[in-house]
Specification:
The chain is an alpha/beta fold. The protein is built from 14 helices and 21 strands. A six-stranded mixed beta sheet has the order 18-17-14-19-20-21, with helices on both faces. The chain has a five-stranded antiparallel beta sheet with strand order 1-10-9-5-6. The longest helix has 26 residues. The N and C termini lie far apart (72 Å).
C-alpha cells in the first residue's frame, strides 16, 4: 500500500498512452496499424517496467534534510536550506514541493532541479514572517524521475517541525555595530550625575581615619580582627527602559506588520545596544494596565530575558492608559532613567489624554516619545492630484501630516524628546537618538 502511494505517472506517460490508444483505433481501419500498435504497446510496457525498476531498485534513492535557523526573525528574510542527496547511480530530475507554514499563505511552493549520479545540492529559499509565534513546517515532498520520465517516485523528507518566530534577531545583530563603532565604548568616559546618584560596591579595605562608620563590614571585621569597611563608587551604568504601548493606536499595519511588532523589533535592538554600552536595560509593556515589567539590569541573561518576554507579548488592542505607566514609574523606577515610549498619535486630540502623565514622567526621567509617520498619507501627498476627489484627499492628508508636526512641537516645548519616523526606519532612528543622548550626556 505504501508503495502504491509513492508512485506517480508523468504527463509523458499519459501522452504516450493516448498515442498508443489512437494507433489501436486506427487499427480498426487498417490492420497494419493494429499490429504496429501491439508492438509499440509491448515496448512501452517494457520501458515502463524498466523505469519503475530503476527508481524502486534501492530503498533510499534520495535523502533530503531541511535546515531552519534556531530562531526565525519576524519581519526579516529568513533563509531555509534543503540539502538533497542522490544515492542513485544515474542522474535524476527532481520536483520539490515544500509544505511551508500556513501563515505564509504560499499555495504552491515548487522547485525543479537535476542531480547527477551520487550528487548533492543545497536548495535555499527565503521566508518573511510578519507575526510572532509558532510556524509549522510539514513534509518536504520530493518527486524523482529518471531520464526515461514515465514514472515518478515520491520521497518524503524534512520531517514536520515547529519553528518559533521571535522578534527580529537579525535586526538586533545588524544594528549592534552602532555600539562598537561609536566612541562611547568606555563606561568611564561619561559624566556621572551628582544629584540623585546611586552607589555600587567596589571593594573591602582596612579602616583609616575619616572613613564613614556606616560602611563598616562587620563580617570582614570579625574574620580579620581589625576594622574593615566597604568601599563604594558612583554607579556609571544608567537605567534604560523600552516602554511599549500595546493599545489600539499600535494596531495600524505597515507592509504586513502592525506598528506594535515594529516597536517590539526595535526594542530588542535598542536594549542590545544599551547593554553593549554598559547601561542597564529594562522593559515595560502596557495597554489598559501594566502587563510586563523587567527591571533595568546588566546581568548576563538580561537580553535573553527581554527576548523571551517580547516573544510572548499578546494584545487585545484595548485603549491605552498612560496613568498606569506613571504610577509604575513612581513605585518601581526610583533613579533617573531614560524612558523611551513607543506609541502612536494620529492627531492632537489623541495626545490630550496622555499629555499630563507624560509631563509628570518628564520631570522625573529623561523621556523620549516615539511615534510614526503615516506612510500611506505621505504617498498620497506625493502623488499627482488629477481629479477633484484626489484634491480633497490630498487636503485631508496634508491636515493629518500637519497634526503630526504640531504634536512634535508641542512635546518639544514641554521638554519631551520626540522621534517621528517611518516604521521601516524605526530601529536606526531610536538607536541614533540614544547615542545622541549619551554623547551630549543628557542623562
Amino acid at each position: 500500500m505504501k508503495l502504491l502511494k509513492s508512485i506517480y505517472f508523468t504527463k509523458l506517460f499519459f501522452a504516450t498512452g493516448i498515442g498508443i490508444v489512437f494507433i489501436f483505433i486506427m487499427g480498426y481501419l487498417l490492420p497494419v496499424f493494429y499490429v504496429l500498435a501491439k508492438v509499440i504497446f509491448t515496448l512501452w510496457l517494457i520501458i515502463l517496467l524498466l523505469d519503475a525498476i530503476r527508481l524502486y531498485g534501492i530503498r533510499n534513492g534520495v535523502i533530503g534534510t531541511r535546515k531552519t535557523p534556531e530562531l526565525l526573525s519576524n519581519g526579516d528574510e529568513n533563509i531555509i536550506r534543503l540539502i538533497l542527496r542522490n544515492n542513485y547511480q544515474f542522474g535524476i530530475r527532481l520536483d520539490v514541493i515544500e509544505e511551508v507554514p500556513a501563515q505564509l499563505q504560499w499555495r504552491n511552493f515548487r522547485y525543479h532541479t537535476r542531480l547527477a549520479a551520487s550528487g548533492e545540492k543545497i536548495v535555499t529559499y527565503q521566508i518573511k514572517p510578519v507575526t510572532r509565534g509558532g510556524y509549522e513546517f510539514g513534509w518536504t515532498n520530493i518527486f524523482v524521475s529518471s531520464a526515461i520520465g514515465l514514472v515518478k517516485r515520491r520521497y518524503q523528507a524534512g520531517y514536520p517541525e515547529k519553528a518559533k518566530v521571535y522578534p527580529s534577531v537579525i535586526q538586533m545583530k545588524r544594528y549592534e555595530f552602532l555600539s562598537i563603532s561609536s566612541r562611547l565604548t568606555d563606561p568611564g568616559s561619561k559624566k556621572v550625575r551628582k544629584s540623585g546618584r546611586s552607589l555600587e560596591f567596589d571593594q573591602i579595605k582596612e579602616y583609616i581615619r575619616g572613613d564613614d562608620f556606616r560602611t563598616v563590614n562587620w563580617k570582614a571585621t570579625a574574620r580579620r580582627q581589625q576594622v574593615m569597611v566597604n568601599v563604594y563608587r558612583e554607579e556609571k551604568a544608567q537605567n534604560i527602559y523600552a516602554v511599549i504601548d500595546k493599545g489600539r493606536a499600535m494596531r495600524l499595519p505597515f507592509a504586513g506588520m502592525t506598528l506594535l511588532d515594529y516597536a517590539i523589533n526595535s526594542s530588542l535592538a535598542f536594549c542590545n545596544v544599551a547593554l553593549r554600552k554598559q547601561d542597564k536595560a529594562g522593559l515595560i509593556t502596557f495597554q489598559h494596565q501594566i502587563e510586563t515589567l523587567i527591571p533595568a539590569s546588566r546581568r548576563k541573561n538580561q537580553l535573553k530575558l527581554i527576548l523571551e518576554m517580547l516573544y510572548q507579548q499578546e494584545t487585545s488592542f484595548k485603549e491605552s492608559d498612560f496613568s498606569s505607566v506613571f504610577s509604575t514609574a513612581i513605585q518601581k523606577i526610583t533613579t533617573r532613567s531614560l524612558l523611551l515610549i513607543y506609541t502612536n498619535f494620529e492627531s492632537s486630540a489623541n495626545l490630550d489624554g496622555p499629555l499630563p502623565y507624560l509631563l509628570k514622567l518628564a520631570r522625573r526621567h529623561l523621556l523620549v516619545v516615539v511615534f510614526f509617520e503615516n506612510t500611506e498619507l505621505m504617498k498620497l501627498l506625493n502623488s499627482q492630484a488629477d481629479t477633484v476627489e484626489k484634491v480633497y484627499q490630498q487636503a485631508i492628508a496634508e491636515k493629518f501630516s500637519h497634526e503630526k508636526e504640531m504634536i512634535v512641537r508641542k512635546l518639544n516645548n514641554h521638554g519631551i524628546h520626540t522621534i517621528l519616523t517611518k516604521p521601516e526606519n524605526l530601529s536606526v532612528s531610536v538607536i541614533n537618538k540614544y547615542l545622541e543622548i549619551k554623547s551630549k550626556q543628557l542623562l
